[in-house]
Amino acid sequence: MFIKHQIMRFLRWGWVVSYAWIPVLWRPQSGTYLFLPINGAGLGHVSRALAVAKALRKQQPEARIVFLTTSIAVHLVYREGFVCHHVPPAALLGAGVGTVSWNRLFYRCVSDALTTHRPGTLVFDGSAPYLGLQRAIRRYRSLRYVWIKRGLYKASIDQRLMNKNVAMFDAVIAPSEFGVPALQRQPDERISMVAPIIGMDRQDLLSPSEVCARLRIDPGRPRVYVQLGAGNINGIAGVQAHVVRILRQQGYQVVVGQSPIALKPESSDEADREIVDYPNSRYFAGFDFAVLAAGYNSVCEAISLNLPAIFLPNQATQADDQTLRATLASEMGPCEVVAEFSEAVFLGAISKLLPRIKSGETFPLHESNGANEAAKLVSN
Questions:
Q1: Cα 377–Cα 378–Cα 379 angle in degrees, nearest 5
Q2: How far, in Å, CA of 380 to CA of 374, rounded?
Q3: If you write DSSP's letter for every residue of 103-146 in order, what string do you get?
Q4: What is the pLDDT along the chain (380 residues), one digit of tens a residue?
Q5: What angle is formed at CA 225 by the lines to CA 223 and CA 226, rounded to 5 degrees?
Q6: CB of 193 closer than 8 Å to CB of 176
Q7: What is the DSSP letter of 379?
Q8: Closest among 290, 287, 282 to 353, alpha carbons compared
């Protein structure tokens, strides 16, 4: 078994480095950027990349910005005015396509995008670089490679492998988490910490009256927004239905946010309204509080947009430590954490949150958006 493992490691390494020495008759264009967010189940990486790309467009109106993503949210990228190429994620290609075949496809797609647009900088946003990207880095050496790498990885993640991955890039941008010191010392000088990256500013929020008018809900009754993720990693319909039923019994109007990339969206028959929009955070000012999954964007937007929340961390994520993120958030302002859902625990969280809201407790106002800092680092 050990010998077989070593042979497989050698073959993977050989494929990554093969042909890296061949000169490529190709030169990059310094004003062109290729953003490469890796998403299959949710919108976290592509949303963060879009926030940085939009900030970069404001800073450099003449910049040419192109996307290549595994997210099925291609239309959302086009909606923001960017060209977008798509690589189907491995999970959607069926059991007949293995890891090796998919990485070959991924490499070809990256290579085609590079030769077509000739970017001077490739900006990768993902948990770890796939072998197909590693091969591209080996071959297209005249590019500048930047990794936007959020933190709070689970303890099970191999940190030595993570450090080797960091070494492949010219620069690494680490968006900080609320509740974590933003300027903590990094072990590698290539890693630059920035403030949390937020895709929505407070001045862009709809007013409470606009939210009630658009969603046709009663402005005189309390309102709760529920968004537990896309459900592409694990089924959320059961918990979501339970949450909605409990809130309705407590007298709340409930609006459920459906993800625009949910593969098997299940309508919430008991909810007062459902919305499928992007970003749903524009509606946040219209709610008394929210019940949310604890992904990076959900937590950062709730805090920065001052929306009290009950967080239900997704325990099925491979690398993201949502429980820790939610716990840190609960120490900053009016939010509670339900790590293991049950009706009793959820009702207890509501009873703890309401006095915090009524007392006027708010999250601290954060003026800095890490998207602007990250855009400056991307453009070097």
A1: 90
A2: 10
A3: HHHHHHHHHHHHHHH-EEEEEEESSS--HHHHHHHHH-TTSEEE
A4: 667 666 666 666 565 555 554 445 567 888 999 999 997 667 889 999 999 999 999 999 999 999 999 998 899 999 999 999 999 988 888 777 888 899 999 999 999 999 999 999 999 999 889 999 999 999 998 999 999 998 777 776 777 888 888 999 999 999 988 877 644 545 567 789 999 999 898 889 999 999 999 999 999 999 999 998 765 555 677 899 999 999 999 999 999 998 887 766 667 778 999 998 888 999 999 999 999 999 888 999 999 999 999 999 987 776 778 888 999 888 899 999 999 999 999 999 999 999 999 999 999 887 789 999 999 999 98
A5: 140
A6: yes
A7: T
A8: 290
What CA–CA distance (Å, rounded) separates 247 from 251? Answer: 7
Q: Judging by beta carbons within 10 Å of its beta carbon (0-12, 13-18, 19+), is residue 379 exposed, middle or buried? A: middle
What amino acid is encoded at 377 in this protein? L
Q: Outline where DSSP puts E strands in the chain.
A: 29-37, 64-69, 83-86, 119-125, 144-148, 171-175, 191-194, 223-227, 253-257, 273-275, 289-292, 309-311, 335-337
Contact 154, 103 (CB under 8 A): no
* Residues forming a β-bridge with 144: 121
Q: How far is residue 202's CA from residue 282's CA, in Å, rounded to a whole number? A: 9
Torsion angle of the four alpha carbons 340, 181, 367, 230, in this order, in degrees rounded to the nearest 10: -30
DSSP β-bridge partners for residue 124: 36, 147
Q: Among candidates 244, 208, 223, 209, which has minimal Cα distance to 289?
A: 223
In the block, residue with structure tokens 């990486």: 45
E strands present in 151-200: 171-175, 191-194
Residue with tokens 């950027």: 33
What Rg value do the Cα atoms of the chain yield, rounded?
Answer: 22
Alpha-helix runs per DSSP H in 203-342: 208-215, 237-249, 296-304, 322-330
What are 292's strand-pairing partners?
227, 311
